[in-house]
Amino acid sequence: TGSTRPQRLLRAVQKKATQGDPQSVIATIDDFCRHSEWAMNVGDEKGLILDSIVSEVNPSTALELGTYCGYSTVRIARLLPPGGRCITLEFNPAYAAVARQVIAWAGIQDKVQLVEGPSGDLIPQMKELFGVQTFDFVFLDHWKDRYLPDAKLLEECGLLREGTVLLADNVICPGTPEYLQYVRNSPRYESRYFKSHLEYTKVEDGLEKSVFLG
Ligand SMILES: Nc1ncc2ncn(CCCCCNC(=O)c3cc(-c4ccc(F)cc4)cc(O)c3O)c2n1
Ligand SMILES: [Mg+2]
Description:
214 residues, alpha/beta, binds ligand 77H, binds magnesium ion
């Protein structure tokens, strides 16, 4: 019963990153993924685009779909204004267990609510479970064929408001063709593509930023 990749990533964070320093946690994970073992974090290149959009939105309430090891959770939560919070959904208990410890090591656990379960079940419960009115920002980074149904579910549950920003990872690789077609052709969204690369590689990938128009 050897260790898993997320467990080895966590061990690197606890060994090399400064406790309470989100930037050092981010740098340690990027170094681990670039020089030891590739992992599907949004990464440093797309991470800078994520940072700039989160800073621009300055969300009070952010939603992340697909926590994995918590790398993008730390990137988002470290930029939130005082009182701001990030709800992140992860359905894999092993990933969630690692993410909780990565988030705690970064010292931003008070800004994060990690919920275990599938997005399709949890999104309709956001209002009753967490007293969420609407989200200011949504980062989609979970199953690529769930981006479209979950965007529609967020609309139907009244969880988006005029100006809510949806930011989707991996719209080229692995790819989310149905989602892209929807947000780029729907009159309810203003969409823009940010060209980048698949984390830690030279393969093309990008982020799609879509503003909900209400
Ligand atoms: N419904 C629901 N609700 C909640 C949930 N929580 C987790 N999940 C399931 C998410 C499973 C992981 C999703 N992420 C990816 O698959 C992903 C893959 C690559 C990649 C891989 C290999 C390549 F060769 C190239 C690119 C790169 C990325 O940046 C990715 O984000 C959930 N689902
Ligand atoms: Mg991704």
